[in-house]
Write a structure and sequence with these properties.
The complex is a heterodimer of chains A (158) and B (135). Chain A has 158 residues and is mainly alpha-helical. Chain A contains five helices and three strands, in the order H-H-H-E-H-E-E-H. The N and C termini of chain A lie close together (11 Å). Chain A has helices at 2-19, 24-41, 50-80, 100-111, 135-157, and strands spanning 89-94, 116-121, 127-132. The mean pLDDT of chain A is 82. Helices cover 65% and strands 11% of the residues of chain A. Chain B has one domain (6-105). In chain B, helix 2 packs antiparallel against helix 3 (73-99). Classes of the chains: A mainly alpha (158), B mainly alpha (135). At the A-B interface, helix 3, strand 1, helix 4, strand 2 and strand 3 of A face helix 1, helix 2, helix 3 and helix 4 of B.
Amino acid sequence: MAVQVLLNFLLAFIWMFLNQSWDPVTFILGYIIGLGLIYFLHRFLQGPFYFKRVIAIVSLILLFIKELILSSISVIKLILRPNMDFRPGIFALPTDLKSDWEITLLASLITLTPGTLTLEVSPKGDTLYIHAMDLPDTQEAISQIKNSFERAIKEVTR
Amino acid sequence: MKSLNVIEIAKIVVGILLVIGSLLSLLSTYGLLRLPDIYNRSHAATKAATLGIMSILVGAFIFFYFVDGLISAKLLLGIVFVFITAPVGGHLIARAAYRTQVPLWEKTIKDDLKRDDLKRDKRMTKKLKKAAENQ
């Protein structure tokens, strides 16, 4: 992936040399043309086309922001409820993410989702312990969200 | 020179963002006072307060960009840092509280972490006993 990014920068610089103009507009134009060239030639390079991963990262960030807004709204609804009748609890969530980096990302995504907070990662790194603010009526929705997060993270890292 | 209309629209957007941000901060402080135990309180402190601070910072950024024509990279960096560090801080405080046996609220219905910890402890004591017998 890093090779493809470097190659794209190199192509943009070559485009600037060919045009003999040194402004950002030429650079961006060259970068876009280089992107097209790499798209056509990426089967000669190692790994998949790198821009797919860039799109996955951007969509993950957008997901992050959306979940943050939704979770703030749901937490505030709970705070403003006149009687404290929610049922908190701690549940275990098995995960099949492997590297520390992926698990950290998943844990902080979970912390920012509606009504959940990562308490602990098991020593082996295969289970996350999550404190949920209102366990009964969110458990299934939560596991659905987890699946979508795990898939988004896998798309970025693999 | 930007036209006056754009500045007026930007001012309205900034005002809305600032009001939302300060309301969110106020409500999360109210949640800190009202919620029953430390774990539920850290829910309020991590989520609503993070979004509140972020929207105040975004409002300040838009204000400086449209009114003074200034792109403040420090504000953008501040947004990113708050966004990255707030969930980690909430996680660490809750974890430290759990590890020092701060009690959960009495209405808590499930505790998988305790169950798995007990299992692990039993396994460890068995192993230690075996090792002691072998020696």
